[in-house]
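Quick check before the chapter quiz. The format below is the same one you will see on the exam, so make sure you can read both the input and the output lines.
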Amino acid sequence: MSLTLTVNGVARRVDADPRTPLLWILRDTLGLCGTKYGCGNGICGACTVHLDGEAYRSCQVQVSDVGKKRVTTIEGLSPDGSHPCQRAWLEEDVSQCGYCQPGMLMATAALLREKPRPAEADVNRVLADHVCRCGTYQRIRAAVARAVETAAATPATKAGS
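Here is the expected output.
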Protein backbone atom coordinates (compact mmCIF):
# COMPACT_ATOMS: atom_id res chain seq x y z
CA MET A 1 0.00 0.00 0.00
CA SER A 2 1.27 3.49 -0.84
CA LEU A 3 0.80 6.13 1.86
CA THR A 4 1.78 9.76 2.25
CA LEU A 5 2.94 10.74 5.71
CA THR A 6 3.89 14.20 6.92
CA VAL A 7 7.03 13.63 8.96
CA ASN A 8 8.87 16.57 10.48
CA GLY A 9 6.97 18.92 8.19
CA VAL A 10 7.79 17.07 4.96
CA ALA A 11 5.33 14.96 2.97
CA ARG A 12 6.90 11.52 2.46
CA ARG A 13 5.48 8.76 0.28
CA VAL A 14 6.04 5.25 1.59
CA ASP A 15 5.09 1.81 0.34
CA ALA A 16 4.31 -0.48 3.26
CA ASP A 17 2.01 -3.09 4.65
CA PRO A 18 -0.66 -1.00 6.43
CA ARG A 19 -0.07 -3.01 9.63
CA THR A 20 3.62 -2.02 9.81
CA PRO A 21 4.44 -0.17 13.02
CA LEU A 22 5.21 3.50 12.46
CA LEU A 23 8.52 2.92 14.27
CA TRP A 24 9.82 0.70 11.46
CA ILE A 25 8.73 3.17 8.78
CA LEU A 26 10.56 5.97 10.57
CA ARG A 27 13.75 4.00 11.17
CA ASP A 28 14.01 1.56 8.27
CA THR A 29 12.20 3.33 5.44
CA LEU A 30 12.86 6.99 6.20
CA GLY A 31 16.22 6.59 7.97
CA LEU A 32 15.17 8.60 11.04
CA CYS A 33 16.99 6.60 13.69
CA GLY A 34 16.58 9.04 16.59
CA THR A 35 13.37 7.24 17.52
CA LYS A 36 14.57 4.12 19.31
CA TYR A 37 13.33 0.55 19.38
CA GLY A 38 13.26 -0.52 23.01
CA CYS A 39 10.73 -3.21 23.79
CA GLY A 40 8.34 -3.29 20.82
CA ASN A 41 5.40 -3.54 23.23
CA GLY A 42 4.78 0.11 24.14
CA ILE A 43 6.17 -0.42 27.63
CA CYS A 44 9.53 1.39 27.74
CA GLY A 45 8.76 4.65 25.90
CA ALA A 46 11.96 4.77 23.83
CA CYS A 47 9.96 5.04 20.59
CA THR A 48 7.80 8.02 21.61
CA VAL A 49 6.96 10.46 18.81
CA HIS A 50 4.31 13.15 18.38
CA LEU A 51 1.20 12.76 16.27
CA ASP A 52 -0.31 16.22 15.91
CA GLY A 53 1.61 17.26 19.02
CA GLU A 54 0.52 14.38 21.26
CA ALA A 55 2.93 11.71 22.49
CA TYR A 56 2.46 8.20 21.08
CA ARG A 57 4.50 5.01 21.24
CA SER A 58 5.39 4.52 17.58
CA CYS A 59 5.85 0.77 18.02
CA GLN A 60 2.13 0.57 18.80
CA VAL A 61 0.84 2.76 15.94
CA GLN A 62 0.17 1.05 12.63
CA VAL A 63 1.30 3.21 9.73
CA SER A 64 -2.22 3.08 8.24
CA ASP A 65 -3.59 4.69 11.43
CA VAL A 66 -1.44 7.81 11.05
CA GLY A 67 -3.66 9.23 8.31
CA LYS A 68 -3.28 12.98 7.97
CA LYS A 69 -1.71 13.47 11.40
CA ARG A 70 1.64 15.29 11.50
CA VAL A 71 4.43 13.03 12.76
CA THR A 72 7.25 14.70 14.67
CA THR A 73 10.33 12.75 15.66
CA ILE A 74 13.23 13.86 17.85
CA GLU A 75 14.97 14.99 14.65
CA GLY A 76 12.07 17.33 13.87
CA LEU A 77 11.40 18.67 17.35
CA SER A 78 13.96 21.40 16.77
CA PRO A 79 16.64 20.67 14.18
CA ASP A 80 18.93 23.32 15.68
CA GLY A 81 18.54 22.00 19.24
CA SER A 82 16.82 25.15 20.51
CA HIS A 83 13.71 23.49 21.93
CA PRO A 84 13.61 24.10 25.72
CA CYS A 85 13.62 20.35 26.40
CA GLN A 86 16.64 19.70 24.18
CA ARG A 87 18.54 22.57 25.79
CA ALA A 88 17.62 21.42 29.31
CA TRP A 89 18.66 17.83 28.62
CA LEU A 90 22.08 19.05 27.51
CA GLU A 91 22.47 21.58 30.31
CA GLU A 92 21.58 18.98 32.95
CA ASP A 93 23.86 16.38 31.32
CA VAL A 94 21.03 13.84 31.42
CA SER A 95 22.25 11.20 29.02
CA GLN A 96 24.55 8.39 29.88
CA CYS A 97 23.93 5.84 27.14
CA GLY A 98 21.17 8.11 25.82
CA TYR A 99 19.07 5.32 24.38
CA CYS A 100 15.86 6.19 26.24
CA GLN A 101 16.29 9.94 26.12
CA PRO A 102 14.59 10.76 22.78
CA GLY A 103 11.39 9.13 24.03
CA MET A 104 11.50 10.88 27.40
CA LEU A 105 12.30 14.19 25.75
CA MET A 106 9.40 13.83 23.30
CA ALA A 107 7.00 12.87 26.10
CA THR A 108 8.11 15.90 28.11
CA ALA A 109 7.78 18.23 25.11
CA ALA A 110 4.21 17.03 24.56
CA LEU A 111 3.43 17.60 28.23
CA LEU A 112 4.81 21.16 28.13
CA ARG A 113 2.79 21.86 25.00
CA GLU A 114 -0.34 20.76 26.85
CA LYS A 115 0.59 22.23 30.25
CA PRO A 116 3.36 24.85 30.18
CA ARG A 117 3.58 24.74 33.98
CA PRO A 118 2.86 21.09 34.81
CA ALA A 119 2.33 19.94 38.37
CA GLU A 120 4.63 17.28 39.76
CA ALA A 121 1.76 14.79 39.38
CA ASP A 122 1.62 15.56 35.64
CA VAL A 123 5.36 14.96 35.26
CA ASN A 124 5.04 11.73 37.27
CA ARG A 125 2.18 10.56 35.05
CA VAL A 126 4.05 11.25 31.82
CA LEU A 127 7.42 9.80 32.84
CA ALA A 128 6.23 6.94 35.09
CA ASP A 129 6.27 4.33 32.36
CA HIS A 130 9.49 5.41 30.63
CA VAL A 131 12.43 3.18 31.42
CA CYS A 132 16.00 4.43 31.75
CA ARG A 133 18.45 1.57 32.05
CA CYS A 134 21.18 3.90 33.33
CA GLY A 135 18.99 5.33 36.08
CA THR A 136 19.39 9.04 35.32
CA TYR A 137 15.96 9.80 36.75
CA GLN A 138 17.18 12.60 39.05
CA ARG A 139 18.83 14.40 36.13
CA ILE A 140 15.73 13.82 34.00
CA ARG A 141 13.61 15.50 36.69
CA ALA A 142 16.08 18.40 36.88
CA ALA A 143 15.94 18.74 33.08
CA VAL A 144 12.14 18.82 33.12
CA ALA A 145 12.20 21.59 35.73
CA ARG A 146 14.78 23.52 33.70
CA ALA A 147 12.76 23.07 30.50
CA VAL A 148 9.67 24.48 32.23
CA GLU A 149 11.63 27.53 33.39
CA THR A 150 13.34 28.00 30.02
CA ALA A 151 10.06 27.74 28.13
CA ALA A 152 8.39 30.20 30.50
CA ALA A 153 11.24 32.71 30.08
CA THR A 154 11.48 32.41 26.30
CA PRO A 155 9.11 34.58 24.25
CA ALA A 156 7.37 32.69 21.46
CA THR A 157 8.83 29.43 22.74
CA LYS A 158 8.61 26.20 20.80
CA ALA A 159 7.66 24.14 23.84
CA GLY A 160 5.72 21.68 21.69
CA SER A 161 5.50 20.50 18.15
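If your answer matched, good. Residues 10 and 70 are 9 Å apart (CA to CA).
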